[in-house]
Amino acid sequence: MFCPECGEEYRQGFTECAECHVPLTDGPPPAETSGEDHAGGDLDVLVRTALWGPVAIGLAKTLLEEAGIPYFAMDQNVPARQESGNFIGRWDVRVPRDRGAEAREILHGVEAVK
């Protein structure tokens, strides 16, 4: 079972995404395409984090880049956040499916540094 919004995978028996509050589907959602073909595959796995500040996000970006993990940051409305100086909200990223576990480990390590 998959969430059609965020792509999160759930075990059988779940019917609604805990984050997006939408009904789950049987198959994974189609991968978002950015026009680039990444060696590790499409950016089809969403990694949710509790990262929110510019320092933590900067560290996370650096670590993903050093590991060679392509990513797409899902933080929306960045100009509004920068203008107000308010970085409230999570910094979530999409990564290739075959690098998802590694990306989660890196990002959760940054969360633990707080």
CATH fold name of the largest domain, please?
Alpha-Beta Plaits
In total, the number of strands is: 3
Q: Helical amount among residues, as a percent range? A: 25-40%
Shape: globular
Distance between the termini: 33 Å
Query: How many structural domains can be distinguished in the coordinates?
Result: 2
User: Which sequence of strands runs across the widest sheet?
Assistant: 1-3-2
Structural class: mainly alpha
- Assigned CATH class of the largest domain: Alpha Beta
Structure explained in plain terms:
It is a single chain. With 114 residues, the protein is mostly helical. It has two domains: 1-30, no CATH class; 45-113, Alpha-Beta Plaits, CATH 3.30.70. Helix content is 30%, strand content 7%. Strands 1-3-2 form a three-stranded antiparallel sheet, with helices on one face. α1 packs antiparallel against α3 (100-113). The chain is globular and about 35 Å long.
